[in-house]
Write a structure and sequence with these properties.
The structure is a single chain. The protein has 129 residues and is an alpha/beta fold. The chain has helices spanning 15-21, 24-35, 79-93, 103-111; strands spanning 2-8, 42-48, 64-67, 97-100. A four-stranded parallel β-sheet has the order 2-1-3-4. Helix 3 (79-93) links the parallel strand 3 (64-67) and strand 4 (97-100).
Length: 129
Amino acid sequence: MALKIGILQADDVLPQLATQYGEYPVMFQQLLQAANVRNDISLEFVTYAVNAGIYPSEIDEVDAYILTGSKSSVYEDALWITQLAEFVRVLHSRKKKLVGICFGHQMVAHALGGKTSLADAGWGLGVGC
């Protein structure tokens, strides 16, 4: 079985961290390849830098999408964010598979009519072990 995954890149990793950890698409590729322990699924990845306005030419050119995190907020008035919200609505209307991570899941909620806002505690960042 083959699965082609489109990674919707919503941010760039800070250069001082990218050298050690890589960019978001590489992180997701490594994670999904590692989870594919039996190698019974052939995984192929395509990255779309949505934060730079780059989208697939055809929505069906991949089987599923992953929307990455971002230090931006989904309710910011930035052109790339409003374009991304519209793309998420199109994905939803076409019943395309989509997984959102952090900013990505907030964008899905925001684009589909949910309420998103700054937390009372302000912007935060967690550190994994």
